[in-house]
Amino acid sequence: MATKNGGFVALLLLLSFLLSSPLPARCDAPLPVNVWPKPTSMSWAEPHMAVRVSSSFHVVAPSGNAHLLSAARRYAALLLAERYRPLVTPAVNVTAGGAGAGAAGRGAELGYLTLAVSDLHAPLQHGVDESYALEILPAGAAATVTAATAWGAMRGLETFSQLAWWCGRERAVLVAAGVRVEDRPLYPHRGLMLDTGRTYFPVADILRTIDAMAANKMNVFHWHITDSQSFPLELPSEPALAEKGSYGDGMRYTVDDLVSCAGEFWLPDASDWPSRLAAEPGAGQLNPLEPKTYQVMSNVINDVTSLFPDGFYHAGADEVTPGCWNADPSIQRYLARGGTLSRLLEKFVGAAHPLIVSRNRTAVYWEDVLLDQAVNVTASAIPPETTILQTWNNGGNNTRLIVRAGYRAIVSSASFYYLDCGHGDFAGNDSAYDDPRSDYGTSGGSWCGPYKTWQRVYDYDVAGGLTAEEARLVVGGEVAMWTEQVDAAVLDGRVWPRASAMAEALWSGNRDATGRKRYAEATDRLTDWRHRMVGRGVRAEPIQPLWCRNRPGMCNLVR
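^ thats the sequence. predicted structure below, dont judge the formating
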């Protein structure tokens, strides 16, 4: 679900070169300063030039869109305060005097960037046009972003900001000149799922994460607000959910008249995994036979869709644990009368789905609702026209099953996009560790291990193995940050820059013009981008020693 700044997710012509102008650089040649994610098309005329940014620099934006005006002020301030120093000094010539010349002895200066937008009122929603074109003339006399929508113009502002750096020799902010960018995303859905149900994150950490997403041209913040462990969201019509379910002194999740197996130990018999009450510690599932369940469900859906205007509503439905429902006396009686757990789930989904659609939302479910072997619903309960399924198991196989059933798919394969994997498990008194060899050669003590490196994330093709017709149903992907072992102290490093890897793969692809995977070429660029993110206050983890960046190619496996 796309949002901006705390929203429930989902949430966000030019003069031509004269014949005498410098020749454009090859599109595949390394550039002195790079943009992440790599644009669809970018040229920088040779010899590479840069222009000083005036101390009075500003962005000229059309009136009529408050979000764009705010972005214009924000990016102008970012540029004026820029102190990013590239790890490798850019080999550029700084423009001399002439048109746009600044103070005596300072040469040319860029005073403003102009935004030209066709449709200022296009709403922020799935599929909105994010394309833009950016041109900075060779002498630095003018810079323009042209876009169909305000949201595309914001993408152009971000690209412009990444073409700027602080030059100590000039004691000035410089920006590339003679640059032309034409850019648009491959996929309309490029997201991060953050789980705040297991760990509470202060608002400042969430907002910093959303800002970092915008810098990476990601557009979907999937806010997994609640889970069986906590319900921290205050809702007007159901205040007891947060009062009893949120973390805090003396607070517990004890809504006993709604929930089966609430407060029970999750694994009554360690030798009988199928009898577990939950997939992990924190048992509790809504009881679809309890009438009050539907009253609460209706109130929650109405409140959430009123709080957050996004066009997607994620209704969950993953990992329904049979043992929990089987242990409930009322459900035992239902099963004795010939009922099934799948029909029980369909009773709940069949009530929730029409309500979600009535609120003018597309319902999003985890793949389990259709593909789980033990508990699932029929396709009639979740019509493809109003449903998107999010896949997380079995890599491309489940994506294929979903699109062949006619559903649109969001890809979050645990084998590639789960950022929590490979850090062991959080269950206590695990006797497996009595054997010091117990996790040698295994998945790092984690069900979804090993750790997903940025290269593994970057290389994944979300539509791999699909026909062209099937691939059209893949709307994009999300990296997932489940937080059993993550809190605010480690959030940035767990997410970034690995989420950046997915951001580029879904924006402009992970292959070069010849069709070869470009992770090798991306290494230096991602190192630079991580360095810039750190300068912006995002505590992203490093991917290589700086020695490697200062000696291009010396850290490669093959010379």
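The domain at 41-96+107-183 is CATH 3.30.379.10 (Chitobiase; domain 2).
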